[in-house]
Structures are given as C-alpha cells and as structure tokens.
Design goal:
The complex is a heterodimer of chains A (103) and B (463).
Chain A: H1 3-24, H2 31-42, H3 46-55, H4 59-89
Helix pairs in contact in A: 2-4, 3-4
Chain B: H1 6-27, H2 35-54, H3 63-80, H4 87-113, H5 119-146, H6 160-180, H7 187-203, H8 211-233, H9 236-259, H10 264-269, H11 274-280, H12 293-302, E1 305-310, H13 312-316, H14 320-332, E2 336-341, H15 351-358, E3 366-368, H16 369-372, E4 381-385, H17 394-397, E5 416-421, E6 441-445, H18 448-460
Parallel strand pairs in B: 1-2, 1-4, 2-3, 4-5, 5-6
Helix pairs in contact in B: 1-2, 1-9, 4-5, 4-8, 5-6, 5-7, 5-8, 6-7, 8-9, 12-18, 14-18
The chains are: A mainly alpha (103), B alpha/beta (463).
Amino acid sequence: MNNNLIDALFVFMLAAFIGFEVIRHVSPLLHTPLMSLTNALDAIAVVGAIVLVGERKSTFALVLGVIAIIAATSNVVGGFLITDRMLRMFKTSRPSKPQVTKP
Amino acid sequence: MTEFAGSQYVIEIIYLVASALFILSLKWMSSPATARHGILAGEIGMVLAIAGTLLHHGIVDYKWIIIALVLGSGIGIPLGMVQMTAVPQRTALSHAFGALCVTLVGTAEFYLRSPDVPKFMMSVLSMEVILGGLTFTGSLMAAGKLQEILPQRPITYKGQNLVNLLLFIVAVGSAVYLVLHPEAKIFFPIIVGVSLIFGVLLVIPIGGADMPTVISLLNSYAGLSAAAMGFVLDSKLLIIAGALDGSSGLILSIIMSKAMNRSFTNVLFGAFGQVQASAAVGEEAKPVRSATAEEAAAILSAANKVVIVPGYGMAVAQAQHKVRELYDALTKKGVDVRFAIHPVAGRMPGHMNVLLAEADIPYDRLIEMDEINGDFPQTDVALIIGANDVTNPAARTDQSSPIFGMPILDVDKAHTVMVIKRGMSPGFAGIDNPLYYLDRTLMLFGDAKQFVGGIVRELTGGH
C-alpha cells in the first residue's frame, strides 16, 4: 500500500463525516430534492469516463466509456434540472399573504 | 500518477474547488430559502470539474467525448422534465444510470490493467463493480415497480433468502480469489454477472410500501460504488462526491426505516405484506359511519383547527390541486388548516412535500409528524385523504399487527376524523385499519379528487 491510498482513505473518512453532519441538517421538507441533487453530484463519475474515452487505450474501453459518459451526463443534466424545478415550487405563505390565485 | 505534468496541478486545484462547491451545495439544501443557491453551487462545481478534466494531458481524442456528452444531455433533459408524481421512478432510474457508469468504467479499468493489478486496487475494483452491478439492476427493478411495469406486490419463492445469500457469497468469494490471483481473469465477468443477478433478486421480493427505504439504500450504494471508483482512479473528487452521496443515502434510509419501525434486514429479507394480504380481506361486516360532501363541508366550516393528512392515494387521484382549493376555501373562512406529513407519505423520502408544493401549498403549512402529533387532541377535524397505514392506531395498540410499533400520526385523537376513501379495501401493506370503525370517524366514500371538489363547491357556495 502506498501513501496515495492512505491519503485517499483519510479523504473518504473525512468526507463521510462531513456528509453526515451536513445532511443531518437538511429539512425533511427537502429530502426529495436532496436525493435528486446528490444524484446529480454523484454523476461526477463522468470525469473517470471522460478520461477513459479520451485516452482511447482500446476499442472495448472506448465503447464502455462512451456508454458511461452518456449515462452519467443524463444524470447531471436531468438531476440538476428536476431539483431546480422542485425547489422553485416551494413557497412560504408569510411574506406575501394576500396573494390570490394566479391565472 | 507519481509525477504530475504541469496541467495536472491545475486540474487538481479545479477539482479541489469543485469538491468545496459540492459540500456547500449540500449545506445550502438545509433550508428552502437557500436551497436554490445550492443547485447553482453544484452546477458550477460540475462544469468546472468536467472542463478541468478535458485539460487532462492523456486525452488524445475529443470526438467521442463530445458526442457522448451531447447524447447524454439529450437524454437528461426529458428525464428532468417528468411529472412530480413520477419523481420516485426517475430517481430510481438515475441511480441505475449512475451505477451503470461506475460499473462500465470499473470493467474497462480491469481489462486495461489486468493482469498486474495490486491487491488493494483489485479489492476496491471488485467492490466498485459488485456495488455498481447490484445497484444497476436493483434500481431498474425498483423503477419498474414504481412505474407499475412490474407487480408492486412482493415476488417471493421458497428458499429465496438462501439463493440470495449464495449469490452474494459467490460474488465476494470470486472477488477474494481475484485479489489473490489477479491473472485469473475469468472471475471478473463472474463477479459482474452475479452482482447483476443479485440486484434483481434483492429487489423483487420488496413490496411497494418499502420503496422509500429501498430507494434510499440504493442511493447509498450508488454513492459508495462511486467512491470505490475514486479509489481505483485515485481521484479525491470522486471519493468526496461518492462519500457525500453514500452518507446522504444512508441517513435517509435510517430515517425511512425508523419511520416504519423496521430494520434493514427486515426490509430486504422480510417480504412485507405477503401474509396479511389474504388475511385482511373478507371481514367487512363491521359497521362504519359515512357522510356526504355536504355534511363534511358543514363540519369543516364549523371547525377552528383542521389537519389534513395526505397520502399517496391523493397523488394517484391527482387531487392535490383540489386540496389546495379546499385549503384556500377554509383559510378564507378563518379556519386554521395545516398538513401532517408522515416521513413515508409518498413513495420516496420527502415526496409528499414536493407534491403539495407543486399545488402551491405554502411549505410552512406542511408539518412533520413529530411536530404535529401533540396537536391532534386540540384538532377539531383530521381529514385523511388517500393515507391509510400511517394513520392506523393498531400500530400503537395491537401487538399482533405487522405494523405494531411503527410511528403513526395520532389522528384518532382529533375530535372528528374524516377519511376519504374509495371503499373499505385494505391499504398498500394489506392491513385492516380500526380507525374506520371508531364512533368519531366519518367515512367519505368516493374518488379523492371528486369528493374534495364536492366539499369545495359546498364551501364556496355552489360553483
């Protein structure tokens, strides 16, 4: 085991704890948008697929990589899009109380 | 990657910024007021990371990258435009896509590096494809069940758990062998294949009522497989994003299984609802009191405090916009109307909040279970629309009930309980609900959308 792997384990441990702390404070109101957002962020795996395709080491790797980029990119685009659509719907009644129904 | 090319430093710094933006993005999700900044931070981070990656010195050909990015965006746009009721299956599908990406990259990496793969590398690579493979097919199954292409009821057969256990042992055993003998390439496709089958078999015995837990758990697996990929590629950005997603999914699955008073093992291996489904039907002799829309409207307008308990049935009937009209009509009459949200209302964590927000109901009127339960004794009317098991008092009192111990909304403590329901059939989990036979309960039989519409017409004076 070299130092890179140990470093990586430390990064993983710290990120997992940050994840727990940050996400524990997310309001249950927003759990659905939270999941679609983490889904989009998780699709950062696309960077691995991009390098794989760009390096073109074998046709096999190229084909798998292209499919992987397509799958991950659709998560990035779709995930951010739907999260934004959902969050735009959340409105509070307090600031604009006399708001009558829109046409 | 021992010696960095010049551009490599730039890329790593970009990744560092992207990681920070990802963490901020989740942090800002803590409140609806800041949540949209969170999306922006996530988007900037993502664009930076992808742009940075394109600078990678090893990339010799951009053609296929561009084609794939364009195609992926083309698929992503319709997936981002689905209806709010379809968000759970969309989410399951995107878990599948994420896992597919990870599994494919892992497979390609194995064949590029084989046969000299160091032991630690082979271990994480195996973990990556096992988690990725089972999440891919498992999520497809979950999406199929949610979309109702596949049967919602658990699919079970004799010796199911034994078969699953054996498959898991085969996958892990092959992985261990491959770690020790990396030249035995044949074991790699076995690991991938068995994981794919395992994912299918793991999810088919799980009933529709448990989907919120399953989606969260698959979310966690998808994150962990991405983190494993980060170890393989030595990418700290991927490790961080994967760890964040993994812990998010884990927290949500813990909340969901607590809300159903079930352990993970019970959700995964319990095949909920199977036995009860046949037992509950058949006894329909007990008397219930029913009421018309006119009577319901009279009671509601005489009330001071009303709590509406929406369930997934409300969304199925597309009644949320009528419910919004009811909210408006009652509020105008000076009635205090709030909504009680059970953590598992809807088909994924937080789903009901989104459905009500879509109908323009202000989010400060949506109250979580723990917060509102103490208020039911002072509530004049609890109006239940399309919810069943989460209001079942048997969960508190009847030790023999399969949902005994599950936290419920204490609607039976309200002065009057009204339940809009199509008929007396049992709910998702197939359990009879004693709430319906209480003296203070009025059953409002009919389609949720039409019935709520009827009440609104009565309240607003006939049009």
